[in-house]
Structures are given as structure tokens and as C-alpha cells.
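New to this. Explain these C-alpha cells.
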Amino acid sequence: MRVYFDTSVLVAALVREHPRHERAFARLLRARSGGDRLLTSGHTLAELFAVLTTLPVSPRIAPAAAGRLVRESVEAHADVVALSVADYRETVRRLADLGFCGGIIYDALACQAATRARADLLLTFNLKDFRRVCPEGGLRIEEPC
């Protein structure tokens, strides 16, 4: 199965103290071992780095450690999807037409990347927003279980 991992799931998988770590980590291990095809996008990797380096955990995750986590735990095992300028333009136009504002754009871009990668499933802990911005169609959106 082709599974797109959203930032929320990747953060939970990589941060042991996260309340949803067990569920997310199990799903990441399954993908890394070949049980699923791990998909993500370039902007999700950037968002993952940003979140890891600003999480309110003690001790803080240093930029070098966050970079290593992104590279070794995700990027080394994932098919990383790149969006085109046309993808960004289309996503911004669609959200503007729908009247959405703010950070939901990043969920819409992840959805666009998952669609472009022909994912069967998008994993997220932010079901509400993803279901609002993902076009109706063949992409299932679920939380890791």
C-alpha cells in the first residue's frame, strides 16, 4: 500500500514523549520495513524539521539532531514527492475560492502531494482539516491505529 505520512504522524513517530508515539511509530516501522511504501513531500520534511526544533520538550531537540532524524528516520526510507509551481498555484487558488485561510494551506499541500504520488492512504492526526481540504476521491484519510 502507498501511504503518505503527514507531519503530525512523523512528529509523533519520532518523539518518544508524544502521547501518540506508539501508534505512529508502529506505522512508520511498518513502512520502513517494506510493509507499506512510505511517501511524503519536500515541504513535509521541512515542516517536520521546523516542528522538531521548536517542540516544548526537555531537553530541546537541537537542529543537528533534528536534521539527522529527518534524514535517517524518514528521508532515507521515503519516496519524497516534489510539487510543481502549478501545484502550489492550484492549491492556493482552490483554498482562496473555498474561503480557507492560515496554516490549513500546509494540509492542502500535503494532500496535493499525496494525490500526485498516487497514495492509497494519507495518515494524519489532523483528520478534520484534511477532510476539509482534500478533494473528494480515491484518497483515504485516517489516523494510524
In short: The chain has seven helices and five strands. The chain has a mean pLDDT of 95.
